[in-house]
Amino acid sequence: MARRAHVTLTGGMSPEGRISGYLLKVIRECAGQTQEQLAEGLGVSAATVQGWESGRRPLMAMPAGNFMALQARFRRLGTAPGLLDALAHGLEADLFIGQALAAPHHQADPAGHLLGTWVITRPFTEMTAWPIGGKAPQALERSTRRALRRGPVPPGPVLGADERRHVITHLQAVAERADRRTAHGLLLARQAYYLIGFDPSPDTTAWLAQMYRTDRQKVRPAQGWSPTWPLARSTASALTRLGDPEPMRCFISDQLCDEAGERANLNYWAFWAGDFAEQQTSDTFIGSTPLSAWHGNRLMRHLLDRLYGNIGFFELNIHTLWSLVRVRPELVSDPPVADEMAAKIEQLLDENLVSAASQRELDALRYVIAIARRY
């Protein structure tokens, strides 16, 4: 998916390189290389490597052949493929951040905006949100900690306060101007909302809450699946991340109330968790893809790893796990999976932190596991 995304994310170069540069530093240190050693292996100066890592020499400006040589060098050093994939995602995120920083707010044009031309993936989202909210992508957290043990250096790529506010204001501008009468506009608005939700500032929370109220008046979401379903989900997700679980509870009760809504929820989660092999250029697939198009192993793992934390996501994760097991009961036939799920369910029920609806879903999951263990 990510490799195809490069086709979508072309349309003008920008001088940004901090995310991919920071990733290069992480990869180099995980490979046990100094800047001088890497430079010697690539036939460049140490100053060039320093420029790449600082972002002063953006990796996206590197000729394709040189970038392939860089990747080959790290492969020979035993670098995990996932880290090299992350470097490609970092280039995509740099392109997006650079274009946002280069656009004056009054020129933030929704027509043809990158966020309206493809359905962003979890790796791209985590990379782009990293300098906004400060949380490292999950796949990199262990490697980042390992690389950062050597001294007091920033824990991730850094945007200045003014730069971060510029990116958020840019996203707000395109979200406000997006035409919600079109599929392109709905996609742009909801993906801008989702990225904005990584900024914890009170002003951002207030703005998102106001947009949530405005959208519910102007674009009233229908029960179950409708073209506005993704907008409702992304707005609820953004507000949940910022501490308000009520929009997510409304989403679960209103948009996941029938078979079509449940199918849409599972399809989107399967895409997000990586069970889909194709890039998507619109949200249409969410409502139209048959459940037989994906298996669910990755989604099961994704959900089991996230039965904790923020209450709004917590309850959506429980509901989605319950829904997944209803359509894929064979996923709990694997004893280790069943044992892990059972242990987590018992802990959640003992803690008594979730709504009555979530408790009923946990009880239903416990029953399914008990049945599976009999056979």
Structure characterization notes:
The chain is mainly α. It has 19 helices and no strands. The protein has helices at residues 2-8, 18-30, 35-42, 46-54, 64-76, 81-102, 122-133, 141-147, 161-177, 183-196, 202-218, 229-241, 246-255, 259-273, 284-288, 297-304, 311-327, 335-351, 356-373. The longest helix is centred in the N-terminal third of the chain and has 22 residues, at 81-102. The model is unreliable at 1-13 (pLDDT under 50).
The span between the termini is 38 Å
Mean pLDDT figure:
89
- Portion in helices: 55-70%
What proportion strand?
A: under 5%
Approximate shape? globular
- Spell the H/E element sequence: HHHHHHHHHHHHHHHHHHH
Blueprint (SSEs and pairs):
Elements: H1 2-8, H2 18-30, H3 35-42, H4 46-54, H5 64-76, H6 81-102, H7 122-133, H8 141-147, H9 161-177, H10 183-196, H11 202-218, H12 229-241, H13 246-255, H14 259-273, H15 284-288, H16 297-304, H17 311-327, H18 335-351, H19 356-373
Helix pairs in contact: 1-6, 2-4, 2-6, 2-8, 3-4, 6-7, 9-10, 10-12, 11-12, 12-13, 13-17, 17-19, 18-19
Task: Looking at this protein, list some descriptive labels.
375 residues, mainly alpha, 19 helices, 65% helix, globular
Give a brief description.
With 375 residues, this protein is mainly alpha-helical. The protein is built from 19 helices and no strands.
